User: Fold these one by one.
Assistant:
Number 1:
Amino acid sequence: MHVHYNTLLHCVYVSLLHMLSLQIKNYYIFQFPKYKWTNKTKDVILSSFFWGYMAMQIPAGQIAHRFGTRRLFVGCMLVNCIIPIIMPIVTYYGGWISAVLCRVIQGVSQACIIPGLHTFFGKWTPLEERGRLTAIVYGGQAIGTVFGLPITGFIASSYLGWPGIFRFYGLLSGTIAIFLWLFHADSPAQHKKISFDERKYIEEALGQTNGQKTLPVPWKKILGSSGMLAIIVAHIGNTWGQLTLFTEIPSYMDKVMGVNIKAVRILLSFLTFT
């Protein structure tokens, strides 16, 4: 799921190359709508995802803790199934404002995934295995980008055009939602197919008991910790640089360098390794 999350996040940048009225050499996509949006409008559309994403970060963790990750993850995937499929249609009739609204909704839904994952780790992974399993899951971000961007460029330059990108990832999100509903559970105790030995091992390793007391969160000490503040600043800087590159490079490569979309999708996937 983390692979799919990062794929959804980055592939819209390649899609916008085709939605805008750009001269893409050697490709004929005139049968699909192209929008003569200004750079300012394009930047608003690209950034609108993060309006919803930023606003939902802290509430998402509380929602996952209170209602469980199964319903949360399935809901997120369903939203990201419906919105991409209808986005080309609502953009055609409603203009760029409709595109912004769709992206804000996607941002709100995708903001729940990473906080939800940490709730999931707390319920399912023993401490001695958590570091390794967390690294594997977060490795899905790079995998999603490496495979997703070339696939996106291929779809965009095919007869499906840029609307096909949204439909493809919408259907993929719906498929993932079905798998999560069938095979995911909020905790080992709620999983119907887990073996008794595995459930016992996880619960004993985590100390999960019916009478476990919930301790208050020391928010004041957390927010006042110099180490915590350093991590926040470093994460902001890293994410700012990374997302600026992924947001602006497709347009730069097309407009300034004159590189066609097939080359752009490969170059963008290589950025993951830098």
Number 2:
Amino acid sequence: MAQPYDTIFAYKVETPPFNREPLLCFVIVQTGKKQRVRSIGEAMSHPPMEEYLLPSSGQRHRVVCYDLETTGLELVDEIVQIGGSVDQARIFSKYIVPATRRVHPVAARIIGLQVMNGRKGLQDLRDNTPVDAVDEGSGLKEFLHWLEEVRGDVDGIILASHGAIFLDIPVLLIALRRNKLIDRFKQIVSGFCDTYAIFRADLKIRDYKLQSLYEQFIGRRPEKHRAQEDARDLHTILTTYFKTEQLSMELRPLAQATYTVRCMEEYTSWRESIEPHRADLMTITASWNVRGDKLKKVLVKNLLAAGYTYKRLADEFRIHGDQVFKNRLEQSILHMKMTYESYLTDTKDMSARVVANRVLEHFKRMRSAQPEWGGEARHMFNQSVKGSCHSDRCTLPDFLIVTEYACTVVTRELILCDNYAPQPTHHADHKAV
């Protein structure tokens, strides 16, 4: 059974806006002491704090590079192949038939795999040959069995993958949860390392893609997009980069990019809760005249990390008007950045002011195209709000703050509206988001 490590909770203490950086604090939790620590999810309704894994004295671990090929690039997509590598000799590979019996056409072209017409197996599109494959549960059990074997007599496994935070880790944890294997997994695996963060922190490196890193440190490499080969090549890149034959948590950059399993579970749950709102928010960027989608995605990530949905933005724009809406949005994004911004949120490449300006521009265009967003709609909304508040002390502005920001720290308004009981209405959803 994997032994617990001491952990470090990293959190930011909010400082006045004129300070360039918030104060970064660390709290070390000694696992050997009798001390109850609340889970990250219990204390927040926003992105999880980063919880890094550091080995305690006397504990040993083995770093295993792994990779997934999936049916697409969304959290709801399924695993098509699992690959793992401890060194050039110990390699794991297992193909999996997705339960949906379908690989997205774009993904199929990239990974060269598709479900066969009979839907009982996979087909290698590169040479039109069948591929031996198993169902998801069986494939995951074989992967866990292999991890147990390569763990040997060490205390736990560190799973390392490139860019894993954004897809591989959540997809793997969701699949394990779906097959009721998460408890067994946590007995074997102690943490996750996202190697993308290692190379992004190196100022000498400009291109962090696996293909580019291999060509920079090793030599030419055909783009393979097969899990076992990507896992093996990542292991080769890391051992070359660190000038070592064996990867370990003694390598400081590797340890600094390793999260606890608990942190990744909380992160996955948060991602699952916000993903349904991503597509709607992307419409805000539809008219942008920018090359590529990176900045568009960063804007949406800022909004999601601050707890916004498209409907909430639209409602607040109707209520407050241009300048107040912009100021409130900018302050909300700024608060998120000072409190929660991290590698997990991936929001650093855009300022709060730029986010607020871009969102305001979108809704001003919408208002110009739809005159009904004007006074009559606002009057109807305000009337429905007034009819929902049963407290004589509750004024309209206070009530609006509560309904829109009940999940944030607005204690004064919550006290004013302690008798609030929302009524169904087609004009607005009063439930806080």
